[in-house]
Amino acid sequence: MSCPLPGNAIERLEREHSVVVGREHVGVRGDAFAQGAPAFGAILSLVTDRIDAPLLARAPQLRIVANFAVGYDNIDVAACSARRIVVTNTPGVLTEATADLAFSLLLAAARRVAEGDRLVRRGAFAGLTPSFLLGSRVHGSTLGLVGLGRIGQAVARRARGFGMPLLYAARTRANPNVERALGAMHVPVDELFERADFVSLHCPLTPETRHLVNAGRLARMKPGAVLVNTARGACVDEAALALALRDGPLAAAGLDVFEDEPRVHPDLLALDSVVLAPHIGSADLPTRAAMAALAVDSILAVLAGRPPLHRVTE
Ligand code: DGY
Question: Is-contact 148 204, C-beta < 8 A?
Answer without folding.
Answer: no
